[in-house]
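Much of what follows relies on a compact textual record of a protein's fold. Think of the row as the fold of the chain written in a discrete alphabet. An example makes this concrete, so a full record is given next.


***
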Amino acid sequence: MSTDQLSATFAALADPTRRAILTHLAQGEATVTEIAAPFEISLPAISKHLKVLERAGLISRSREAQWRPCRLEAEPLKQATDWLEHYRQFWGESFDRLDEYEALVTVTFVEQSGKTQMTFHHAIFETVEGHDAHQGGWSESFDRLADYLAKSDRKIPIVAQE
């Protein structure tokens, strides 16, 4: 995948409405009216989102009489996932190496002015019991964090603290 195509894919995925549209199309093709039904935005706004997704190659539209059904095109998503997998493996290995150290990292989420701030806290385990109770290590923590971010419609600034 070219860098431009990868950029277009991630730019299209950056918007929660477009991600919701892709989720809808993952269940099968749909018309613009069907896609627009769950949203509280106009049909022209939905059409603009569809054009962004189409330019990124994430959807295609066909013509059937007066209808223009949209369908999900999975290849750009697969290519983006493949690109991300390299970094996931890198971070997984890095986090696994950190498991060898006697340290605890916690992540907290704080609501501020309608935004969520995510903060990492790093500390030394104070007891052997605390160390032993740390389940799953870095890889599991990273997976839980990725799941949370995938389900969240918010953009979360990351602030590292020591």
Q: What stands out?
A: The first helix runs from residue 3 to 13. The first strand starts at residue 59 and ends at 61. DSSP finds seven helices and five strands in the chain. Residues 107 and 120 are 5 Å apart (CA to CA).
